[in-house]
Amino acid sequence: MSDKNEQYQNDQYYEHHVFICMNQREDGRPCCADRGAQAAQEHAKRRIKELNLNGQGKVRINKSGCLDRCEEGPVLVVYPQGTWYTYVDNEDIDEIIDEHLVGGKVVARLKI
Amino acid sequence: MSDKNEQYQNDQYYEHHVFICMNQREDGRPCCADRGAQAAQEHAKRRIKELNLNGQGKVRINKSGCLDRCEEGPVLVVYPQGTWYTYVDNEDIDEIIDEHLVGGKVVARLKI
User: Fold this and answer.
1) Is some CB atom of chain B closer than 8 A to the CB atom of A104?
2) What is the DSSP letter of B101?
3) In this complex, which of A68, A80, A84 lies closest to B82 when CB atoms are compared?
4) Kind of pairing, strands B59-64 and B16-21?
5) Taking the model in full, what pTM does it have?
6) Residue A41: its pLDDT value, please?
7) Which of A102, B22, B26, B101 lies deepest, with the highest CB count within 10 Å?
8) Hey, are the CB atoms on B62 and A8 less than 8 Å from each other?
9) Predicted ipTM?
């Protein structure tokens, strides 16, 4: 890591800040909204709250506009790590929560 | 930085991934949408495109849902650095673009 990046790495407001692409396209190209993004976002948000992991210093589940990786979607990204995932269903979302957000390990099979 | 974080710090898809909170509240609490978020997002997106800084390995300007720092808004966050900013007008947005996204230096006066 460069010195330039190191100067930023302090006091993250959220330990894991998750952005789930919710974009709806009308032009026929693939989009995350057509591939279950809303259900995934609602499930992740509910589960993080149940686990009491939501809030400052912990986890934030966010909706986002188009993350511009449409052909690989549905996609989400976890910052500050910058780990990108795709998913199919709630079991995949749970695996990302349990392994990455709780356990701190990248889920290799879902990583893009 | 912990070893745990270091394992993630490789090959960021975007050098700077900017999320601008666009949330509109209807409950009377402050919200970024009432404080110029849309104009800021459009300005940032247009300027980054003009500078030819948009795209993989460079910069992405994203809309996001509520970032949950409403009282400090309007807010945006730059990842993977995890630097949070507030802003008032397009001049502030330009300063964040010129100093942070291009120059790699935190804009202390706008940082929250």
Assistant:
1) yes
2) I
3) A80
4) parallel
5) 0.91
6) 97
7) B22
8) no
9) 0.90
